[in-house]
Amino acid sequence: MLGIFRTNITTVQDRNNVIDAISAQFTVNACSVDLEDCDKVLRIVSPQSLAEQTIIDFVTRLGFNCAILD
Fold first, then answer.
1. Cβ contacts of 20-29, under 8 Å, gap ≥ 24
2. DSSP label at 2?
3. Per-residue b/e over 48-62, b at no fewer than 16 CB within 10 Å?
4. In 10 A of CB 20, how many CB atoms?
5. pLDDT score recorded for residue 70
6. How far is 68 from 5, CA to CA, in rounded Å?
7. Is the pTM of this model over 0.85?
8. What tens digit of pLDDT does each residue of 8-61 get?
9. How many structural domains compose the chain?
10. Domain that includes residue 17, residue range
11. How many C-beta atoms surround the C-beta of residue 21 within 10 A?
């Protein structure tokens, strides 16, 4: 699964917290947030199939906006 999402994550600390939480909750090969991009792109690579809505709901519960990047 490759998921690419638009977020409102803006700080290094928030980025690290979100990545840590995602990594603890789901099996991921890679997870990153590009703070330099205007869409603050969250990219997740996972060997398992994860529903995009599951990721959106999880990140939203962490207090951030998250939507599929078109």
1. 21/58, 21/62, 22/55, 22/58, 22/59, 25/58, 26/50, 26/55
2. E
3. eebeeeebbebbeee
4. 11
5. 83
6. 4
7. yes
8. 999 999 999 999 999 999 999 999 999 999 999 999 999 999 999 999 999 999
9. 1
10. 2-68
11. 15
Residue type, 55: I
CB of 56 closer than 8 Å to CB of 66: yes
Report the alpha-carbon distance of residue 35 to residue 37 in Å, rounded. 6
Q: Report the C-alpha gap between 24 and 17 in whole angstroms.
A: 11
CA 54/CA 56 separation, integer angstroms: 5
CATH code, 6 = 3.30.70.100
Model pLDDT, residue 26: 97
